[in-house]
Write the structure tokens for this entry.
Amino acid sequence: MALSRRSFLSRVGQAGGYSAAFLAMQGLGLMEMRAEAPAEVAAAPGSGKGVKVVVLGAGIAGLVAAYELRILGYDVTVLEARERPGGRNWSVRGGDTVKFMDGSTQRCTWDAGHYQNFGPARLPSIHPTILGYCRKLGVELQVEVNMTRSAHLQNDNANGGKPAVMRQVVNDTRGHVSELLSKSLRQGALDADLSADDKTRMMDFLRMYGPLDEAGKYGGSDRAGYAKTAGAGDDTGVLSTPIDMHTLLDESFWQGMLFDEQFDMQATMFQPVGGMDRIPYAFAKSLGTIVQYGSPVAEIRKTGKGVRIGYTQSGVTKSLDADYCICAMPLTILKNTPSDISAPYKKIFEQTTYANAYKVAWESRRFWEQDDNIYGGLEFVNVGCSPIWFPSAGLFSERGVLVSGYSDENDNEWFAKLDQQGKFAESRKSIERLHPGRGKELEKPMIVEWGKVAYNEGSWLRSFAPREKAPGVALTRQTGQARNPAAARTETDPAYEQLIQPDGPIIFAGDHCSHVVAWQEGAALSALYAVNQLAEKVKMARLTEAMGNVLG
Ligand code: PHE
């Protein structure tokens, strides 16, 4: 008997669950297949009726999970340790207090309207899931300028410590490389690799790309900028003299130059108007009393029927029973939370290494805009605190908040060892290196060190391996894939494969449960994945019960 597509799909669905049906639909061409397709919840609205779920943590993963579960009809409660939603998504403003676990506090006194996103601070356009939620929740976005060619690069050990402008470094490097390639072609060094035709084409290309003159020489280019810009009358301007190749290669002077070539750093990038925390607050508004603040989890127990979560609220010990738990707490915190979570997961919590990213931010006159034509973007130094990150909001206003120093303290022990004043001094020094004379304009410093923040104790998963084996993920030189936190583990890491399996009624979520580590996109995707796993379990449990009724 020929099967209709519909009954075929429902049979696939019965046998293999929603995900199988989903794949079959894609295979039949009934669903769009896009590389960037946002993950979707495959269960039907209302399918969660009568099922209680507790979500641990109101970071992006927890909020997305709760939002989707509610649509499916589940009875959801989110337990959040802090008095605010967002987790690492944290925007600090004047009047806020930053408190570390060592008891130290900083009071932020920035002018009204200024803020710093000490956690996530950019949304790549290739992250459709989190951008999709911004659209749905009405979070207004603006462009985040990740790269400007007016930014500076500096290295104490190269070029006498003199800063160079990005457009010059980029274009002079390109010119020199093109000239060398052109020379090799002319000398016939590549004749075995290129046909005569392609050789001619390549020469044409290099003349344009370099740009090179007829003789194949790079003699500078207006792409690299002007020593003195052109004006009216007979003022034709003076081109900058090319930086010689030796200097460009000196002490990796070019580090930072390729930063925005990374897949997730390319224009166009976005940020919410008013602060990254507009995202969690929009979720929180939508979820209302589903999110219980000031409710740190004390223990996670399995009851046989589901879970029992012990927590405190205003100092009172409470407990909550649920059929399932989506656990979106950081692994650093789970490690020290008493629980019935199975041994293989606990071993992962034990062995995992987190990065301890920090950011130092200052309020200042916008000297970068007013004196250097720099509007947004990042700058890099090779020694000291790096990168510098200028605000994309409030362009052309008088003052702003900039970052000087954003890196992993695990990779910068020299920095980690300093006291707070020493850290601020180093941060100020970086500005002085890049913008001599401007360091003294920096005021009201604030630092967030994620390794010292309660309920986080780390910024993001660095490796599933212990510290001594964890590969370095330096943020200061954000030039290549190997340094991307998302590359901190491979797809086949057995720890990861374990972590994304439900532990009975407990399903883990968070960017660490995705291949997009250290991005809100990863957190959102992992939440959708967890919700689908949960819906699958509920469906199976219902089926088993129905079969029991029929047979019994
Ligand atoms: N998403 C974070 C950021 O944009 C951390 C990160 C840094 C992720 C570099 C990938 C590469 O800063």
About this structure: Residues 120, 122, 264, 475, 478, 484-486, 518-519 surround phenylalanine (CB under 6 Å). Confidence is low (pLDDT under 50) at residues 1-37, 473-483. The first helix runs from residue 5 to 27. The radius of gyration is 27 Å.
